[in-house]
Specification:
Blueprint lengths: L1 H43 L1 H9 L3 H8 L1 E5 L8 E5 L3 H4 L4 E9 L2 E11 L2 E8 L2 E9 L5 E8 L4 E6 L1
Antiparallel strand pairs: 1-2, 2-3, 3-4, 5-6, 6-7, 7-8
Helix pairs in contact: 1-2
Length: about 160
């Protein structure tokens, strides 16, 4: 009986250590992904990088405040990434820059880079195998605009502006 109790305890400890190791690896993978996407945006938009370097807290603070949303836009089981930057250089008064990237080789390829607003909404419709997107942006304190983006086979393009 004592042997079973010790064996059960040992198995429980091994399982907990395994779970902790997996969680640590997932955290490291997310941090690595975050750093790679941040560097990709800065590489693709040099003017934005130069401006952000001058912000209080510099690039470190901008990266801390960046958000990443994983999306499967073409339903192939591989995530694309919505990247939103914050701060005066990326947001202006209210609408923040929104970028969408997909994996390409060892890096990432921009498939939406001219959007600014309050986030991306996935629409039920698709164009060229990719979900259509809607970005809502604040025009004034009292009005909002909505831009619909459709995939042209290489990149998302603005299709409708309301």
């Amino acid at each position: 009986m004592m042997f079973l109790s010790r064996a059960t305890s040992f198995t429980t400890i091994v399982c907990l250590l395994f779970v902790m190791a997996v969680n640590a690896q997932q955290h490291d993978d997310k941090q690595d992904l975050r750093a790679k996407l941040f560097n990709q945006v800065l590489s693709d938009f040099k003017d934005l990088r130069e401006c952000m370097e001058q912000e209080e807290g510099g690039l470190r603070k901008v990266q801390e405040n960046m958000t990443i949303e994983e999306l499967d836009l073409n339903r192939d089981g591989v995530n694309e990434y919505e990247v939103e930057m914050s701060g005066p250089c990326a947001c202006g008064m209210v609408n923040c820059s929104i970028y969408v990237y997909r994996k390409a080789g060892q890096g990432f390829e921009s498939i939406l880079d001219d959007a600014a607003g309050l986030g991306v909404e996935l629409l039920k419709t698709s164009t060229n195998g990719y979900r259509d997107l809607m970005v809502t942006a604040r025009d004034t304190a009292a009005t909002q605009g909505q831009m619909t983006y459709k995939f042209d086979g290489k990149q998302y393009r603005e299709a409708k502006n309301m």
